Amino acid sequence: MENFNYHRPATVAAAAGLMKKSKDAKYLGGGHTLIPTMKQGLASAKDVIDLTAIKGFSGIKVSKTAVEIKAGTTHMDVASSSAVKKAIPALAEMAGKIGGVHVRHKGTIGGSIANADPAADYPSACLGLGATIITNKRKIAADKFFTGLFATALGKGEIITAVSFPIPKKAAHQKFPNPASRYALTGVFVSQDKAGKVRVGVTGAGPSAFRVADMEAALAKSFSADALNGIKVASRGLLSDMHASADYRAHLISVLAKRAVASIA
Predict the structure, then answer these.
(1) HEC letters along 179-196
(2) Cα(45)–Cα(58) distance, rounded to whole angstroms?
(3) Half-sphere exposure of 27 toward its Cβ, with a 13 Å CA cutoff?
(4) Gap between the Cα atoms of 141 and 39, Å rounded
(5) What's the average model confidence in pLDDT over 110-134?
(6) Alpha-carbon span 244 to 258, nearest angstrom
(7) What pLDDT shows up at residue 138?
(8) What's the pLDDT at 48?
């Protein structure tokens, strides 16, 4: 790991100011992605800006229509929140399956979403629930946030401050985890809102999280696992590696989507 300057600002404005002044800086949340990659020489920074000391940067607020989770909130806080369990049980359940217990106690929702790892769990929930990512500058719809492999719509100095998840009528999450890392080999988050609109968010299968329009249309007509019979996800463009081929990941999307729907239909 190369030497770097460490900063621990107390406000979002101060953190953004430090980023603006630096030619090569990175924000640090829980550190479960940045620190390992810096140790391996896969990432470097002259300035590391730690966001964990920012006042009011973590916490959960539930209204009648949405669950707003501040960016510094850990996965464990989401998983153990009685308010989240009541409003969106699938979101709390998903958070409880992220990594191991140490990862859940340190990793943050903001860091996970900002990093946009193709195998991370939260991106599928963002797309599957139609979340809004709130930054220090604007609000971004999840559909426009994830732009590619480890790429998002965030601009330089822009910091995620919270994520707002609309409360659905029903929702479920299923994933096939890598047995070593617990990252999603493929994960699917399905929801239906009170108006009947369906969303199907997928992670782990492609270069970035995405939705499956054909499944959404079929489930909007009939919210049942059988409605997905015959719908095949094309493997072209999906990830293929030592863990699973693109064809296998495409197959998993169908299997997991059916399991998710069956659990709540």
Answers:
(1) CCCCCEEEEEEEEECCCC
(2) 25
(3) 30
(4) 33
(5) 96
(6) 20
(7) 97
(8) 95
